[in-house]
Amino acid sequence: MKGPLTALRAAVALALAGTLVMACGADGGDSKPLTWSMWADGGEEHQVWRELADRVSRDDPQITIKLETSSFDDYFAKLGTRFDKGDAPCIVSMQSLRTAGYTQGMLPLDDLIAKNKFDVTDFDKSIMKGLSANGKQYALPYDFGPVILTYNKGMFRNAGVPEPKPGWTLAEFESVAHKLTGDRKYGFVAAPQDLWMFPMVLTRTGAQPTDAAGKLRLTTAAMTKGVQWYADLAAKEKVAPHLPKSGAAFFAERMFLSGDVAMSASGPWALLNLKNQAGFQVGLTTIPAGPDGSRTYSAGSGFGISKSCPDPERAFKAITLMTAKKQLEWLGGVGRAYPSRESAQHAWYESAHLAGAREVLEAANAMSIPLRTTKNWEQVNRLLNQYGAQLFNGTSSAEQVLEQVQRQAGRG
Description:
- About 50% of the residues are buried.
- With about 400 residues, the chain is an alpha/beta fold.
- The chain has helices spanning about 10-25, 45-60, 70-85, 110-115, 125-130, 155-160, 170-180, 195-205, 220-235, 250-260, 270-275, 310-320, 325-335, 345-350, 355-365, 375-390, 400-410, and strands at about 35-40, 65-70, 90-95, 130-135, 135, 140-145, 150, 265, 280-285, 295-305, 370.
- The protein is built from 17 helices and 11 strands.
- Helix content is about 45%, strand content about 15%.
């Protein structure tokens, strides 16, 4: 997943020092470099991905990778156009929530996996499903994770409220949120973004935003009830701040890091950055349990191959090396990924030094399912953010907003 890497300067500097030494004598042979496009919000992220490409070349000198990066939003805005023009990079980075919308330009990997007898059993099953569509695998994952809740340990301690444990309930969550609200501080931060809102709706009512056929279904009674409850945490219960009229992008992250809210949804891909950016101790726990227990979604990202790639065999070799155990251990160790390979996840825990992290993430993994999306999910998420302020500030209802989004995006 995406996010700034403010904590990685030392690790990246050491890694790049080794890279420069190796690069002086490296020989990529006569093979043409494979182009790889990846999102990177800042120079440190670019450096991490540059190092990953160089690590692959050191493992196989016949493979050289030419990296190009852009911001997360720009990356996906341009990718569809590049697919249509037939000039997409050989190696395509893909987020699970967006996979269904980009399969027209990606090569299914199933035949290459079978031909090369590539063992995928070490990869988490939920993210393998998340990076597939219509029964075909489109990318090999490098990271994944379940949505959980992070919390400000100092706010709990100062209020004399016990820290939440895995298995806690929605009733306990609401009670705690009220106790931690006051004096311009809030117990929780709610936002109309897919990964933050829909897990809470899922655990509350069991509603999912798509049906089995991948069609948008935002207007069911269960979805409307769940979204209204979630929005009312801000609009009526006042345990969450109102959204800014300018939009909700990154609102939850900013509010949590500001120290003005006690709890926020997040994922393991962001935890090390939160820990290093926050001016307080960060704790984590599971999404609170509703009528059917604690439920949540998983999401993640991986690497696939474009249909326009002239050398898919070599590109496949490259992405298998990019997602090899030792590379994912490295990414986990520098804080860039919660590894998709179960055998590499120890590196993340060893680097995180977050008390209770393993218990929480293992519990969340056990109850998570992939967040299945539509082909036009970016439009859906954009509309939810566009109309979210009205809903979360109490000037519109969930029924009105969801019907509006369904009407505008439901045919995608």
